[in-house]
Design brief:
Length: 193
């Protein structure tokens, strides 16, 4: 059965409860990660993103310090998903009440990269399949680390996947292009096959 979208069929945003869908996304993201191919990939991507930010410490406010062997402690998926779950428990994960479709693509969710890193899910998120909901939750959970924006994560993925660096600032829609590439590799490595 398809869930009722926010605002659809006479429901007001007040009557729509996004929580079961958000919780289901957390559960599914955890299950999808619990697979060697996904686990190894995402773990390397997070480490690479931290190293990337560490390497340009002079240009950012974010700080990641390695243990001396090039490993960044606590920069792992358990922390990312835990932080997202914590945001959910504190009421910082909400339904936007708006559709996310634009220019032929759909933005399912957005993380505001400041303060409590609140996450807002657009209408389309609530009618996704469990796998898609899990993959999108995994994506937003990665944004819970300071400085882990789409371009940084997409390039960390490219590096781990053996692809060339891409300067997203040259794209017409830098965030959209990076986000899309990020999703493609998350799907590649973490979607059930
Ligand atoms: Zn993103």
């Amino acid at each position: 059965m398809k869930p009722t979208l926010v605002g659809a069929r006479g429901q007001t945003p007040d009557e729509f409860n996004p929580d079961p869908y958000v919780q289901d996304g957390i559960n599914r993201a955890g299950e999808l990660f619990d697979n060697n191919r996904c686990k190894t990939f995402i773990s390397r991507v997070l480490q690479r993103a931290a190293a990337d930010i560490d390497a340009r410490w002079w240009a950012t406010k974010e700080r990641y310090t390695s243990d001396g062997n090039g490993f960044y402690p606590a920069v792992d998926f358990a922390s990312a998903l835990g932080s997202y779950a914590n945001a959910f428990n504190n009421g910082w994960v909400t339904a936007s009440g708006n559709p996310g479709a634009h220019d032929g693509s759909v933005t399912y969710g957005t993380t505001r990269p400041t303060g409590h890193y609140p996450v807002s899910w657009n209408d389309e998120f609530f009618s996704l399949s469990r796998n898609e909901r899990g993959l999108n939750t995994l994506h937003e959970a990665l944004h819970q680390f300071p400085g882990f924006v789409d371009a940084t994560l997409a390039n960390a993925e490219s590096f781990v996947d053996g692809q060339a660096y891409r300067d997203y600032t040259r794209d017409q829609n830098p965030v959209g292009a990076a986000s899309q590439n990020l999703n493609e590799l998350i799907r590649d490595y973490c979607a059930p096959r």
